[in-house]
């Protein structure tokens, strides 16, 4: 039996003109192995391993790739790895968080936002980035109301350097505020954490996009014997019409294939 793929299951990213696979590939593990919240340690893949993973993901019908300046060397590695494939990928990156020498810091000023996007364009070797999300430090409303980050992203969108923008936050209030003026919210939503569901409800009602982070609780989901936690997780996610795609940060091709097959099965059954 052939491996199920997601090619026929791409869907709109809210009201943008982007179409994305229901599963996206997170790339923190391509760039950094410090300060990550996974239950098991891992080795950062070399270029050959990373290239094979990306090719495998693309062949499985994944077109959404998620990176960030705070993901160590991720952006710098993806630029060369994706050469000649720009039309095949919807690229999501971030602004606001830097990760240097094992420490995170945040800057939501207009100057840093513009610098960060210009740097990401260079690193990713592209003329535009499909979606830029604000990497919140948890003070969601303060960032949105008291900094220039959203206004700067709106200007960068008008200039054609980004095609959409949004917010990767940690609160319901922040997520809804972010969607009022932006294109997308990235929320935590899984079998363990469902506090941000009102953001997804708001997005569904207003035609905005939601991407889900930690869809599998960063590998921490455990259920009763005989229940597949991956299937249960994706059933929860994709029964909600507000969710466009779930970002999964695996570097294991077998895990990726299993995730894709499960999502394909869940969506075709629905």
List the SSEs and their pairings.
Layout: E1 11-12, E2 19-20, E3 23-26, H1 28-31, H2 47-59, E4 64-66, H3 74-81, E5 90-95, E6 97-100, E7 103-106, H4 110-123, E8 131-135, H5 140-146, H6 149-158, E9 165-168, H7 172-181, E10 184-188, H8 197-206, E11 209-213, H9 229-238, E12 245-248, H10 253-269
Parallel strand pairs: 3-4, 3-12, 4-5, 5-8, 8-9, 9-10, 10-11, 11-12
Antiparallel strand pairs: 1-2, 6-7
Helix pairs in contact: 7-8, 9-10
Give a verbal description of the structure.
It is a single chain. By secondary structure, this protein is of the alpha/beta class. It has a single domain (11-268), classed as Alpha-Beta Barrel (TIM Barrel), CATH 3.20.20. Helices cover 38% and strands 18% of the residues. It has 10 helices and 12 strands. It has helices at 28-31, 47-59, 74-81, 110-123, 140-146, 149-158, 172-181, 197-206, 229-238, 253-269; strands at 11-12, 19-20, 23-26, 64-66, 90-95, 97-100, 103-106, 131-135, 165-168, 184-188, 209-213, 245-248. An 8-stranded parallel beta barrel has the order 3-4-5-8-9-10-11-12, surrounded by 5 helices. Helix 8 (197-206) links the parallel strand 10 and strand 11 (209-213). The longest helix is centred in the last third of the chain and has 17 residues, at 253-269. It is globular. The chain starts with 10 loop residues before the first strand and ends with a helix. The model has no long low-confidence stretch (mean pLDDT 94). It comes from Pseudomonas fluorescens. GO terms for molecular function: oxidoreductase activity. It holds the Pfam family Aldo_ket_red. This is NADP-dependent oxidoreductase domain-containing protein. Residues 22-219 form the NADP-dependent oxidoreductase domain.
């Amino acid at each position: 039996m052939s491996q199920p793929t997601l090619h026929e299951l791409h869907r709109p990213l809210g009201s943008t003109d982007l179409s994305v696979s229901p599963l996206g590939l997170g790339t923190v593990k391509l760039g950094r192995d410090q300060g990550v919240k996974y239950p098991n340690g891992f080795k950062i893949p070399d270029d050959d391993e990373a290239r094979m993973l990306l090719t495998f993901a693309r062949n499985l019908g994944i077109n959404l790739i998620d990176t960030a300046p705070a993901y160590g060397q991720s952006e710098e590695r993806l630029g060369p790895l994706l050469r000649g494939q720009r039309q095949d990928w919807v690229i999501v990156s971030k602004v606001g968080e830097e990760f240097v020498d094992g420490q995170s810091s945040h800057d939501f000023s207009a100057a840093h936002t513009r610098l960060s996007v210009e740097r990401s364009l260079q690193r990713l070797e592209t003329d535009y980035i499909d979606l830029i999300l604000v990497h919140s430090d948890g003070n969601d409303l303060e960032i949105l109301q008291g900094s220039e980050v959203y206004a700067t992203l709106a200007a960068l969108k008008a200039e054609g350097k980004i095609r959409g923008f949004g917010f990767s936050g940690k609160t319901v209030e922040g997520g809804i505020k972010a969607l009022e003026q932006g294109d997308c919210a990235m929320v935590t939503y899984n079998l363990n954490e469902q506090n941000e569901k009102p953001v997804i409800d708001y997005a569904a009602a207003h035609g905005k996009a939601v991407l889900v982070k930690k869809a599998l609780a960063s590998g921490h989901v455990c259920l009763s014997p005989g229940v597949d936690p991956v299937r249960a997780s994706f059933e929860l996610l994709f029964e909600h019409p507000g969710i466009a795609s779930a970002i999964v940060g695996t570097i294991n091709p077998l895990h990726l294939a299993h995730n894709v097959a499960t999502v394909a099965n869940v969506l075709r059954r629905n």
